[in-house]
Amino acid sequence: MNDIVSPERRSQMMRSIRSADTAPEIAVRRVLHRLGFRFRLHRKDLPGSPDIALPGRRIAVFVHGCFWHRHEGCRLAYSPKSRVEFWREKFKKNTMRDERAESELIELGWRPIVIWECETRKSDLTDIIRDRLASK
User: Fold this and answer.
1) Residue environment code for 32-49, b if the CB has 16+ CB neighbours within 10 A, otherwise e
2) Gap between the Cα atoms of 15 and 108, Å rounded
3) What is the pLDDT along the chain (136 residues), one digit of tens a residue?
4) pTM of the predicted model, to two decimals?
5) Fold of 19-134
């Protein structure tokens, strides 16, 4: 199956996808702030550069896009029909990188937490975040 847009347009579209300060990430930050948490953003000195770090609690929060990070069972984690092998390999590398970052954080004494993009669209996001922070 061929792509329905030109390679130049596809490249432009892919470049416009942000990796920081996304709408789901901002939604999580607002809830954390409202709950009284203070945090640091995009800590490059930690494995995986967590989107949000709560240094006092040693918690690293990743706000993962369901498509890019393959949220299992989520409708947003569909697989493109074109360039199937490219996407399979891309997604495999993404998930392996996520697993490696989480295990390295655990070794350093941090607790990684993942909030999925689809969860940020739910009205009970505050409860979801409270539960994740309280668990373990």
Assistant:
1) beeeebebeeebeebbbb
2) 33
3) 566 878 888 778 777 777 777 999 999 999 999 999 999 999 999 999 999 999 999 999 999 999 999 999 999 999 888 889 999 999 999 999 999 999 999 999 999 999 999 999 999 999 999 999 998 6
4) 0.85
5) Endonuclease; Chain A (3.40.960)
